[in-house]
Amino acid sequence: MRNGVTIGQAAAFVGVTVKTVRHYHKLGLVTEPERDSAGYRRYGSAELLRLVQVRTLAAAGVPLADIEPLLDADADQFATALAEVGRQLTERIEELTARRDTLHRLSDGNRALLPDRAVAMLERMPSLGFPEAEVAATREGWVLARALVPDGFDDYLTDVEHAIEDPDFVALLRRGVEAAAWAPDDPRNEDLANEMIEHYLANPAHLRIVTGMQARTEAATRYQLIAHHGHEPTSTAGVLGALVETKLRAAGIHIPR
């Protein structure tokens, strides 16, 4: 064994660190040599070969826990086990590719969290007269809605796509944005809420924007989280929203409480 090499030399020859060699010993993947008469552990050709085999399999993606059975397997078992490792690696590659694509989409924060058709509407909002703050609030609300009611979000987007082609509806929404500058007790809130109710009741397709997703929730909690996101109850937006909901309920429209 005096012709063997030290653990540091063995690690360097194989292309790993001393810490890695010790870890292989701890897992029982490579037998730790006995000490020689001088008190040194010397790695001979058998230990170096085993280190190379373990290092190669680990670098190929084989979990350390699976390496020992592989090294002791016959040719058929070895081929079958490697095929399974290959399948697992393919799954990981697909998952990592999807993550990479998501990272690319993060360069446009909207596209990472919303479908392209939603992004297109957000990009169109400024040309319809909505300020950037309202676009940002809409974005947040849609991200939340998609997460909480995923099976209803596509239908919701379809309703919004159709509704924003109606100038009267867009004008009404803009007035709602402008109302944020009013005092919560401003009497104009009542008048605007009445106009909104009249419009919704006269246009059932537009009313679905308010009622569509909440019908798919199993409890009122999700609806409340979506509908009132970013609105303090005592703010003008909160007061106006509450007025609209109250008037819709009075008209026989189901709105969760």
TrEMBL record:
Q: Which domain of life is it from?
A: Bacteria
Q: Which UniProt keywords apply?
A: DNA-binding
Species: Nocardia coubleae
Cross-referenced InterPro entries, in alphabetical order? DNA-bd_dom_put_sf, MerR-type_HTH_dom, MerR_fam
Give an example GO molecular function. Answer: DNA binding
Q: Keyword DNA-binding, does the record have it?
A: yes
Q: What lineage is on file?
A: Bacteria, Bacillati, Actinomycetota, Actinomycetes, Mycobacteriales
Q: What is this protein called?
A: MerR family transcriptional regulator
Keyword field contains Ribonucleoprotein: no
